[in-house]
Structures are given as structure tokens and as C-alpha cells.
């Protein structure tokens, strides 16, 4: 595992996974301009390196993120990044799977960062909430848009309208969290899941993300049309040919990403 310099966002490689750590523990890993730019740069690093198959996003010292740094925002800092939105991730069109590893608080923009990921692993001491309405705002970093698509409408409205904080156990029961682990175990569990995902064909993983993202507002017929195009491209790929060969030869495939 190779670590890069200790900055507001730290990146390290763990096998075929890029671990992205928000590193402002004294500010409960709140998102300021430096964090937003750092996450955006880390996402670019993940997307550009063919050896990396997945990303894990977490926070330093037992806290995921307390959300937007209100003092920084009041001082004029910009926490949105062009083409990637809030915290350099909320509106990013990523092709590689992202896993949030949540310890402690994931509040406001912190919860929205988790919602921007494809999978969420959380410790049993994690806490989730969208308290923006308590400050005269709304969950504008994806919370108001994504949460009602992830859980039943009335339950999402309860969290959005009350600003209430829920436990990791409750978040898991609602389906926001994929797996609940003991305190301190979210990162390792996320890396284990990332390793399992990395065994699969990278082009197929990207196609899954494209279909899920791009068909969200489409009719079923439009969705199938989009899906056919993705499948046609996969059928022409070297990876599909390798997958068939590996299956017939009873061995693990060696993906080329082409």
C-alpha cells in the first residue's frame, strides 16, 4: 500500500482499489474548497488509471464527514467543482464502482457523498442525517434527489423534512446501507467488497453504471434501447471473448479492459 502526502484529501492504493480519505478530523471532515478539489482530483486519478478497478471513500479518525463546512462557505469558499458538483463528486459521471466506508457521522453533505457512491458500508456506530432544513437550506448536494429513489417516499420525506439523524442500524434496515459492521471495520469491509467487484470485467462494470445512471428517467422501452447498445459494445470487446475462453478453460479471466 502506497500513501501520498498528508493533505485535506489523502489517497492510497490498496491492490486494485483507490482509497480516498477526507482528512480534516479537527473539522469533523467537513467539506471546504480544498476537500472538494481533492476529491475531484482523486476521482480523476481513479478514472484515469486502468489498474484501478474501484474506489473507497472514507473519513479520517472515525468520522465520515459532517457535511459542508458552513464557516468556509460563509467566507466565500466554493465547495462545488465544475462538472462534478458538490464536494467534487455529487454530479460526477464515474465509470468505476465507488464504495462509501462510513464510520461516525455522515451528516448533510457527508450523507450526500455516501448517496453519490454505488455501495455503502457502515459501522454500527455510524449516524446519518440531512439536517439542512434546520439551517434554512435543503439537501442540495443530491440528498433531496437521491434519497426518495433509494427508500420509500414517505420515509425519505420524513428524513428530509425533519432533519432527523438515524443510526447505522436504521439506515441498513431502510436499505441505504449494504452492510453493517462493528465499529472500526468499515474500511476493511469496503476493501473486501471492492476486491470482489474487481474480479469482474471492467467494461461490464462501467456498462452497469451507465445503464443504471442513464435510464433512471427513461421509459422501459427507452431503457432497453440504451441497454442494447451497451450489450452490443460488450459483445465486441476483448473482455467478452476472454470471459468465454476462461469459462470454457475453467480458469480465472485476465481482463484487458478492451
Could you give the topology of this structure?
Elements (H helix, E strand, L loop, with lengths): L1 E2 L5 E6 L2 E6 L10 H16 L5 E6 L10 H5 L5 E2 L3 E2 L11 E5 L2 E3 L1 H7 L3 E5 L3 E3 L13 H8 L2 H10 L2 E3 H7 L4 E3 L4 H13 L3 H13 L5 H16 L2 H11 L10
Parallel strand pairs: 3-4, 4-7, 7-9, 8-10, 9-12
Antiparallel strand pairs: 1-2, 2-3, 5-6, 10-11
Helix pairs in contact: 4-5, 8-9
Describe the structure.
By secondary structure, the protein is an alpha/beta fold. Helix content is 41%, strand content 18%. It has 10 helices and 12 strands. The chain has helices spanning 33-48, 70-74, 109-115, 143-150, 153-162, 168-174, 186-198, 202-214, 220-235, 238-248, and strands spanning 2-3, 9-14, 17-22, 54-59, 80-81, 85-86, 98-102, 105-107, 119-123, 127-129, 165-167, 179-181. Strands 1-2-3-4-7-9-12 form a 7-stranded mixed sheet, with helices on both faces. It has a 3-stranded mixed sheet with strand order 8-10-11. β3, α1 (33-48) and β4 form a beta-alpha-beta unit. α4 runs antiparallel to α5 (153-162) and α8 (202-214) runs antiparallel to α9 (220-235). It is globular and about 55 Å long. The two termini are 27 Å apart. The model has no long low-confidence stretch (mean pLDDT 94).
Amino acid at each position: 500500500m502506497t500513501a501520498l502526502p498528508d493533505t485535506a484529501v489523502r489517497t492510497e492504493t490498496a491492490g486494485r482499489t483507490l482509497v480516498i480519505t477526507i482528512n480534516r478530523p479537527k473539522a469533523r471532515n467537513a467539506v471546504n474548497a480544498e476537500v472538494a478539489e481533492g476529491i475531484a482530483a482523486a476521482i480523476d486519478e481513479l478514472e484515469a488509471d486502468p489498474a484501478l478497478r474501484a474506489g473507497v471513500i472514507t473519513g479520517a479518525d472515525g468520522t465520515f464527514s459532517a457535511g459542508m463546512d458552513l464557516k468556509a462557505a460563509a467566507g466565500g469558499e466554493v465547495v462545488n467543482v465544475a462538472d462534478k458538483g458538490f464536494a467534487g463528486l455529487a454530479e460526477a459521471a464515474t465509470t468505476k464502482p465507488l464504495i462509501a466506508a462510513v464510520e461516525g457521522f455522515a451528516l448533510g453533505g457527508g450523507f450526500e457523498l455516501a448517496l453519490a457512491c454505488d455501495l455503502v458500508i457502515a459501522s454500527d456506530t455510524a449516524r446519518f442525517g440531512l439536517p439542512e432544513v434546520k439551517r434554512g437550506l435543503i439537501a442540495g448536494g443530491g440528498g433531496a434527489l437521491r434519497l426518495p429513489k433509494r427508500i420509500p417516499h414517505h420515509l425519505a420525506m420524513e428524513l428530509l423534512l425533519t432533519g432527523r439523524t438515524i443510526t447505522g442500524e436504521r439506515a441498513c434496515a431502510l436499505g441505504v446501507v449494504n452492510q453493517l459492521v462493528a465499529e472500526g471495520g468499515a474500511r476493511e469491509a469496503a476493501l473486501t467488497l471492492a476486491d470482489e467487484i474487481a474480479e469482474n470485467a471492467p467494461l461490464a462494470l462501467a456498462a452497469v453504471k451507465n445503464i443504471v445512471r442513464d435510464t433512471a428517467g427513461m421509459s422501459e422501452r427507452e431503457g432497453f434501447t440504451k441497454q442494447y447498445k451497451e450489450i452490443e459494445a460488450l459483445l465486441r470487446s476483448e473482455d467478452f471473448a476472454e470471459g468465454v475462453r476462461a469459462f470454457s478453460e475453467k480458469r480465472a479471466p485476465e481482463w484487458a479492459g478492451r
